[in-house]
Amino acid sequence: MVTIFDDGLMPGMLGTRPFDAEGVPCQKTLVLDKGILKNYLCNTYAARKLKLKSTGNSSGTGVSPNNFYLEPGKTPPEKIVSSLEKGLILIRTLGHGLNPVTGDISRGAFGLWVEEGEIAYPVSEITISGNLGEILNDIEMVGNDLAFHSSLSGPTIKVRELTVAGQ
Questions:
Q1: What distance in Å separates the CA atoms of residue 161 and residue 29, rounded to the nearest whole number?
Q2: What are the residue boundaries of the Metalloprotease TldD/E C-terminal domain, all occurrences included (predicted)?
Q3: CA gap 44, 28 in Å, rounded
Q4: Beta pairing, strands 152-153 & 68-70
Q5: I want to staple 141 with a disulfide (CB 3.0 to 4.6 A). Which of 22, 78, 111, 158 is the partner?
Q6: In whole angstroms, how far apart are CA 1 and each of 34, 72, 137, 143?
Q7: 63, 43 in Cβ contact below 8 A?
């Protein structure tokens, strides 16, 4: 089970700011705790509708995360890769393909194909698809390598199954 935070106060990170677009102080918000939804990210409008308090996530046009990340685990990424019989190391996704109502995703991607625990060859021009809730439930391993390259980050993870299309 995974734990996810949004933290607008992390020193030196891209999404760090003292206040959101509405002047509400940013904070660290526990979103998922071991797979259980604990909090919604809210601006003042969403908070009022949900009878909650703003979490300091107003972007001016809606609700946006600050520094949104999956909590790292204890497994080295090398061990995750070596545990794969066949699989894909997803390096990057391209475009936007998330249905916020259903959680269905479909994104262009590229990465590295793994066979028998070893990187076999690079892959590009592929599409990954699935349901975000199911993907989160299918996480089998979480790496210890959290690194922030954007305001949405996470460590290496191993997902039981994901639909991949392309050649």
A1: 29
A2: 2-166
A3: 17
A4: parallel
A5: 158
A6: 5, 12, 7, 13
A7: yes
